[in-house]
Hints:
Elements (H helix, E strand, L loop, with lengths): L4 E6 H13 L17 H16 L4 E5 L25 H17 L2 E3 L6 H15 L3 E5 L13 E7 L2 E5 L1 H8 L6 H8 L14 H11 L2 H7 L13 H6 L1 H11 L22 H10 L12
Parallel strand pairs: 1-2, 1-4, 2-3, 4-5
Antiparallel strand pairs: 5-6
Function: 5'-3' exonuclease acting preferentially on double-stranded DNA.
GO molecular function, one term: DNA binding
InterPro entries: 5-3_exonucl_a-hlix_arch_N, 5-3_exonuclease, 5-3_exonuclease_C_sf, DNA_polI_H3TH, FEN, HhH2, PIN-like_dom_sf
Amino acid sequence: MTQPRLLLIDGFNLLSRGYFATSYGKSDEQLSTNSEGLYTNALRVFFQKLMNLITEHDITHVAVAWDVKREDSVRRQYAPTYKETRNELPSPLIQQYETCTRLLEKIGIMQLTVPPYEADDAIGAIACQWSKRNDGHCFIYSNDRDLLQLLDERTTQIIASKKGEILYTHKHFQEEYGITPTQWIDVKALLGDKSDNIPGCPGVGEKSALPLIQQYGSVEGVYQQLDKEEFDPAYKRYQKKLLVGRESSMMSKKLATIICDIPELIDTDFTTYAFTMNNDLVEEAFQEIELRIKLHTKLL
């Protein structure tokens, strides 16, 4: 019997990447549409990638997670400026999101939107449960490196690169960074994240954030040693910056931590995530909006 294999997709990450890759330098009028005037440029990329992933990785279970509106995020409750610097989404992208959710429902793919939690949180909650309750593997498809904190022996992130897709495992992470995936949160706590408006510790950059966590294990570990004589002289020049930025670092860690304990997802029934490709059904759904997607069938 084939072991189950779960695919979790960060919906907006894939849809928006597809949109901006195919809309660069174009006006809204120049984007591809169907005969009814519905935009399709991002949908084509989204569904072609989805179908390819399901086939290439022998996926048996799949879900697409969607973000809530920024102002509805649980993180806004304790950080009002969280993601405040992001631009509004283009209307053609919003329209394609609405079409995308309808198509996913038609072809029988589970979708996750769990207010006030973000897509990363829903992915984290499901990935953690799958890892604990199943013998099969979990693949997370996203270029968002925040999700690296979820990697373990049964969880791999598929990351797109110019050279092709990388199946990035927890071993790859440990070899590259010299810490465990969960310690990635502590690195982000010091570094911050401009795209999400997470401040980090001002003045502490990439050259020092990772080595500090490698040496002291966590943000808390850094601050426990900060005033002691044993604190490494190599980081003395960051002492004042760390002291001033303590509150900011702690808040940044809270913001960067993916919430895996979501009450609505605690008793997830994974049978509802099962997906078997029905080519006729899928093709019919795509034809309804004149979307040309190539379906691949693996040879036995």
